[in-house]
Amino acid sequence: MLLRATATAGALAVLIVLSQLQTTAQQGTGRAAGAAGGAAPAPAGRGQVRPECANPVIPAAECGIWPGVNWADPPLGPGPFLLQTAVPQHRNIKVVVVAAGLNQPWSMAWLPDGTMLVTERVGRLRVIRNGVLDPNPVAGLPEIRVQGLEGLMDVVVHPRFAENRWIYIAYHKPSPVPGATTPGGNPLIEGESVLARGTWDGKALVDVKDIFRSGATRTESSRIGFGRDGMLYMTVSASGTGPDVLRSADLNDYAGKTVRLRDDGTIPPDNPFVGKPGHKPGIYTYGHRNGHSMALNPETGQFWVTEMGPDGGDEVNILKPGANYGWPYVSFGRNYMGPRISAAPYKEGTELPWVVWVPSISTTGATFYTGDRFPGWRRNFFVGGLREGETPRTGQLVRIEFNERWEEVRREPLLRDLHQRIRDVRQGPDGLLYVATGENAGAVLRIEPGQPAAER
What we know:
The protein is mainly beta. It has 2 helices and 25 strands. It has helices at residues 9-29, 161-164, and strands at 81-84, 92-102, 105-110, 116-120, 124-129, 132-133, 152-157, 166-181, 187-200, 205-217, 224-226, 232-236, 257-261, 283-285, 295-296, 303-307, 314-318, 355-357, 363-368, 381-385, 396-402, 408-414, 422-427, 433-437, 442-449. The protein has a 5-stranded antiparallel sheet, with no helix packed on it.
């Protein structure tokens, strides 16, 4: 598949170069972030100070980003990799490279026949069959805006796929800004968070249609998932820093929210804000910075959503209808220049996160383990991380154990020896865990049981 051009050939070449530079910078920082630098005399971070950033109205609206450490992640290598875990029953594990040569893989899903679908942020949907990556991207995708952390996000298969053959994708759609132009006089294009549905014909997506357009641009991550109620849930991020963070609390804006939709993209009449003036009817929860997972708890039926904090304050939130999760007014984290986001991490009327990271690991995709291949890991929650404490080469997969009330009792970082950014983790139909690395030279990995631990 070729990504359709949205500018003239000359302008497109410039955009590609700028996009590559921005992607490299953001890969170095390992997290979502705003576009501007901080006020003097603090370190400039990225670019010139925007006027609205000089005196932020709240700490989260600060635009400054402390200069990052420039240390690229090492090549992954062919594997397999033999590693160990803290659980004696699974002391030895083997990590196998299923497919390499992927560019920023973002999400994974499986068809009933075992075919794996993998999204690449650069706007391609890939297929892995019988452990082999098809060199040809899936045809039929819509026009996708790819810049920075915008692009092709999540992919989900309809629960009744055998009947309807429907596949859903979350992506950024090129959206002209009314009346705005670039310095070169071209229309200014931004990326809008959109949900599309297409029909799988065995090789390509056909009859692809946008079924939900958020109208929210300048957004980043997006995840989707089906709930037990048959509804489709989707995260729509807000900008990580700068004045745009205030949008997360604005109930007339889909940025910084999760939405709840029917499988055709229409709004259910029992959504919490339906019929309320000045409220977007699709909103299910608000006050989010972003959402990097949509993991359904197999026991409670509630969605657990990972949320990447600023400098510290990564969260796992349990979605409750109509709830406010506090961003940008409360957080356990600090902004990128050091000051705390809030004096206290809670205020009345907001939900406390269920799990918190300080320092941040730049949380990404997550999944509950329910399989038989790792019985000692059942009821564990696995969370990907791009890097810890703003330091490169510390990407990891975190395994979290809970008691019978789903209260955290232990967490263990895994895969740190690989020094790769972890973008997503999913349980496959074979009961094994699959991991996508968030690299320009990305890969899909499979975690398998290793040799049994030696008896003493």
